[in-house]
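Table S2 (continued). Query chain:
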Amino acid sequence: MESASHNNKLKQYQAIYRECRRLNLINSEEISSIEEYIEKRTNSKVKIKVIEHGRHLTYEALAIKIDQDQLLFPIKRSTEIQGNRTRAIDKNAIFEELGWIIPPYFPIEQIQTLAAFLKEAQVQERHSMLEQALAKMYHYEYLSALYSERYAKIPLISDYKEIILEAIKSHASGFRYTPIISLIAVIEGTSRSILNSFNIFTSLIGLELYQKMLSSFRSYYKTKILYTNYHWIPSEYCENSFLESFDHTMNIIKAFENFIKKHFYSNSNEYTGVGSLNRNGIVHGFYLDYNYSFNFQKLITVLDLLCFILSWKYNFSLLGPDPTPESLVLYNELAILSSKIKKQNRFAKNYA
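Corresponding output:
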């Protein structure tokens, strides 16, 4: 009975919203009129205030309190808001073309600048330019901070901290195949653990595993983060297509899913991406030409995206980590390993 009553209430809120929209009452200048209208429909005391809703970009809305229920009536229609925000997703296309994803932990302005820079370049030059950018972004001092402040501390991903540390040290030592294989295993294991954390225990593997994990996170993000204080929101403002047009987190998740489908887990017989960063082709031994530093750095971006997802659940910072005394110890070790390789390469070049 309680469930039926709740459903009836939600249907009533939907009917009220549609009628208010039809009567053009949903605006910041008609507060008293809409309060009066809703009070008559519900026989309840109603309080309304105008707010800016959203996390990154915002839109104006009416926050409506009916007894103990909170409702959100956005002032502009979803199509109008979405139409003004489509430019926010332009950066996805250029990164997707190059087999990369929007990275977390970096300022949005920096990523937009990089996207514009790549877009203006000649097609044949774009990936080499991205390689240079990745090397600068994921330098060893920053990698050390990521390890000590994120990979070693965030639940679920920290289960794999020893493997991640070995992969980072291996890369600094000049190895190229081993770090990539190791991170692929960590990414798959962590993704399964994340799905389990949403109380979904499954034998799914491959693309379906990632899609289910990302779908579960989207639901969590909408209900627990974006609209956590509201009992009813118009359904069109909860659609992925609407939220992806201006919410940075939803935009990142969409980019992640596209990367998994079109690159990481695409059919290895059809994959033509630069560097052969395709899980099936690598794990099943079809590819031998994936030993590039930029592939390691692209997988670090994927690892960071998993950290980003987990940070919402476990209250870790969404900003990039700063160096700490602990991370600087690791950085010094990586710098020594890296310098040895550079010396060996110079020696080999001189005496070749």
